[in-house]
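Continuing the series of single-chain predictions for the mutant panel. This is the parent chain; the variants come on the following pages.
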Amino acid sequence: MCVVISMGGFLFGYDTGQISGFLEMEDFLQRYGEQRADGTYYFSNVRSGLIVALLSIGTLMGALVAAPIADRVGRKWCVSGWCVILCAGITVQISSPTGKWYQVALGRWVAGLGVGALSLLVPMYQAETGPRHIRGSLVSTYQLFITLGIFVANCINFGTEKKTSTASWRIPMGVTYIWAIILGFGISMFPESPRHDYRKGKVDKAISTLAKMYGVPKNHRALAIEFDEIKQKYEEEVARGQVSWIQLFKAPRMAYRVAVGVALQALQQLTGANYFFYYGTTIFQGAGIENSYVTQMILGAVNFGSTFLGLYLIENYGRRRSLIAGALWMFCCFIVFASVGHFSLNRDDPPSTKTAGVVMVVFACLFILAFASTWGPMVWTIIAELYPSEYRARAMSLATASNWLWNFLLAFFTPFITSAIDFRYGYVFAGCLFLAAGLVYFAVMEGKGRTLEEIDTMYVWKVKPWHSSKYVFPETEPSIMEKRRASHASNPSTNPTTIDDNHETTV
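Parent structure:
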């Protein structure tokens, strides 16, 4: 299940990785670029910015539109539906005639609708379905597959870039159909999110799904406890009435949490990772690297391999410590990258300062190592854990839309900014990374080993984030779990499931 649903991340990464290579391919340039007086072709900043960035406008819209549909139809079938939209966008791009660069851009916008919706639905489904003890790693596989998608796209681009026909870019673009079909058909074989099923009155189905995910019988104590927490939260939802966008901001600590989620997703983009992924081929050509496609493959491999480290860190060192350390590490890398690029690299004749170019590639790899093991996977995990079930789809859609808004702004304006301030652009990202470390320290709760309902309670009770990793619910204010068990003990007839002191559950 984890592999199939994470194909949503693979599609995101694959599209991100392939566009950087397209911009330098001979046939793509001749068909959709502009011609100079000497007969050579190039992409203006506006044209390249629109081709790259319109995907992000589509993803922003897709993330917002998918939320209410997911609440009504369910997470599972929405994923299949948005895969169809994604395939339609690829068809528009791949059929673009010569000179119609705007059709490529329009196709990327349509494909972006699907990618954006999947970027909301996949982490949501993983968080609502996964057992608490591996939830962080499970959601982080979304980012793992993003990195795998980027790497595979880099490899396919490298294999086709020497072709002089449309095959150079149509082959990697057409391969996208395969990944979308795997996800669209594959998820139909898995159950709906148990939390969504419960809210729709399918209680038995929700219990069965939870039991499958935990690998335990339906009457297991751990299952009974988590199910009670889900039930308690749902009863609170019913008492508050139907959810609206206004209620989203009026509910306990929800405005605060929406702001935290929006800021986290914005800062994930402002780490500067997509500076390398979208324009890496162009960046490293400017740094004097002979075959920038090889450099992109190296970065993609580092990105993919480092994400496995993130799967270990998130469950062993927690979200907060990893994110803070990662932000400070990336801060240092960008300071060196920008300083060498501005002060040591001869930008008029990059091959004459080859050492500077090599140093920049090394620190780019060190940056990717930090990003892929911390901010890449962990932000998606935190966003999936941040909100209670009734508000999760809407709140996550706003946070995800923030990610895609900043994705668009960076993708579109990066060519203009780098033309004006060259590699000093890295100092901007370094400043944002320093702010990111502060945001995590002062605003993000530690979710390691907690259920989604426990994390929600810590936000509502205003637990200090820097104390959250060791927080223990006080006896004077028992946790949800304890309240439910006490209620069942006093009125056993209302609940057919009881728990004895030997940690066995009977029905």
